[in-house]
Amino acid sequence: SAVISQKPSRDICQRGTSLTIQCQVDSQVTMMFWYRQQPGQSLTLIATANQGSEATYESGFVIDKFPISRPNLTFSTLTVSNMSPEDSSIYLCSTLARRRNEQFFGPGTRLTVL
Amino acid sequence: SQQGEEDPQALSIQEGENATMNCSYKTSINNLQWYRQNSGRGLVHLILIRSNEREKHSGRLRVTLDTSKKSSSLLITASRAADTASYFCATDAQGGSEKLVFGKGTKLTVNP
Questions:
Q1: Which one of A87, A89, B79, B95 has the fewest beta carbons within 10 angstroms of its own beta carbon?
Q2: Contact between chains at A1 and B45 (C-beta distance less than 8 A)
Q3: What is the full per-residue pLDDT of chain A (114 aa) written as tens digits?
Q4: Which residues pair with A91 in a beta bridge?
Q5: Which of B42, B48, B103 sits opposite A102 (nearest CB)?
Q6: CA trace torsion A74, B90, B20, B50 (10° rounding)
Q7: Which residue numbers of B have CB closer than 8 Å to A's CBs?
């Protein structure tokens, strides 16, 4: 299985600011995914990030609010822009173990917006 | 879009008892995965079951899949306090989509 790390593990931010979350995988992967988990809720897919192309966003999520970078096959960033308290969530990145179709997750970034 | 629904939403049992959690979904799938999440941390992958499989085991875990009923169950036998966590099912879609749709989860508490 892939080993995935995320930075920061948690942060407390002020309204109106932006935070960039980093996701690092220990092996080259084609697809990376970003999810949001609001307090007490399940996970919702924000976007799919492929290296060398624009991220594909799910309904309800837009690039201006959640810009994503995917500069190489082991790394991606998600920025939460112009934050409001409603953005307080856990943000998780994931990737596929291609041969077995299993999807593995990073430890998550717990974001609190005041 | 398809959506997994787990039941029960919350389950409290004593150590040593078995815990059964169920998941239902709405559309055809390639596979279904179960995850565990401890106290709002990252998700731990437990098991993947393919649409052509009916049952799968991993240690104390047993997963069943009934594609005719569009449902799956996760059984944890001889539960331990360390099994206390939220458990989620996640499905993908036939047609090759790697995107996962998660159920709402079951919060399991195992009392020592």
A1: B95
A2: yes
A3: 678 999 999 999 999 999 999 999 999 988 899 999 999 899 999 999 988 888 999 999 999 999 999 999 999 999 999 999 999 999 999 998 766 678 899 999 999 999
A4: A36, A109
A5: B48
A6: -90
A7: 30-31, 33, 35, 40-45, 48, 88, 90, 92, 98-105
